[in-house]
Amino acid sequence: MYKDEPQILTVVCKLETTNEQDRHLENLSLIFAATCNYINSSVPDKYTGATKIQKLIYADAKTRSGLQANHVIQACIRVAGNRKNSKVKEFKPGSVLYDARTFTLSKNLEVVSLCVLSGRIKVKLILGDYQRKMLDWGNGSPSSATLSKHSDGWYLHIQVKVNASLDIAQITEKHNYLGVDLGRKDIASVSNGMSFSGEKIEKTRTKYSKIRARLQYKASTGTRSSRRRSRQLQKRLAGKERRFQAWLNHNIACKLILEASFSESHIVLEDLTGIRERTNTQPRSREQRFLANSWSFYQLKLFIQYKANIAGIPVVLVNPRYTSQTCHKCLHIHPIAGSSYRNGKDYCCGHCGWKGDADYNAANVIKQLGAKVNSPCGSEFLACNLSVASIPGLLKAHCEPGVPGSQWVVYKGQC
């Protein structure tokens, strides 16, 4: 999967505001949230497209709110996005959407001009070396921004477009591959022997789950003072686990990108689309279901993809079927249906005798799949519809309806 297109990054910059500017931004935030609520309540729920919502309510919303035209359009976009995703019933003040026409960065990146109710105000930006570098990288031409109020003041989340370093002409010259097996016990196992343990995040999830359960119980059954204290603690804990998970995934993605860059390799990942829908149909304990559904493999994949795109590293997605059961040395699986050479973290091949870490084995199978999928021989060379029943023990996947990419295999020999 190679995409030669700009990458959008978000740069968070703090604003140095005066008391008067604070009042302007506060008023804008209140009116913007009220406009979103008015649009949401006035337009029937069946309309979820920003263009349709804007057509129905734009003139009325602009007259009632007094907002700039582009802010009314951004309010329609926010309502449309909410209806497609989170279904928030009420919009609270604290953030405002901007596009490239409602805010402008100065050439030296020291000042930003923002549209407010009474016109425009110029606010000083507090920039560090990282923010300045990212804004310079985006040629000082941001595409959009979000004004957000934090506990310590106002921040501007600026979206900039940067050109990826990916050179499509040089992709076929790279013949090295890094296979990455994603899991819960080890968040990521790499075909070169690197691994990232998931023990810490699993303990963190379990810890916060128990704390939330206790606080919820006290908030609903305790005394008046304990209920108030429990709600305060719940507010403090909100997002703490999510932020820790994102920080961990960012670090793992950075290390994988550095390794791939150093070895000039493609990165090969499993395409785990729909895995929760498939696994949730299986009987499991409540704890196992919780751990599986809180597994943030999709976020890690996104982090790897966008960082790889910037660094010019190709990313290949392969079908995950049989990757954990197959021996990376001889490409055989257990000949008996329902049985496997894998036992937890251990893998012992009954065909060639190879023994080792099961996740390391799976990562190397994924690596070989990526190399074959990216083979210049073409996809037809890889298609093999042999069934497990007819020739047991070889790595292959059936062509099943509704299973994208299930026909791709690594196959030793002729079909």
From TrEMBL:
What is the official name of this protein in its record?
Transposase
* Domain of life of the native organism: Bacteria
> Its Gene Ontology molecular function terms?
DNA binding
One Pfam family recorded for the sequence? Cas12f1-like_TNB
* Record bears the keyword DNA-binding: yes
Q: Which InterPro entries match?
A: Cas12f1-like_TNB
Residues covered by the Cas12f1-like TNB domain: 297-366
Keywords noted in UniProt: DNA-binding
Q: Does the keyword Secreted apply?
A: no
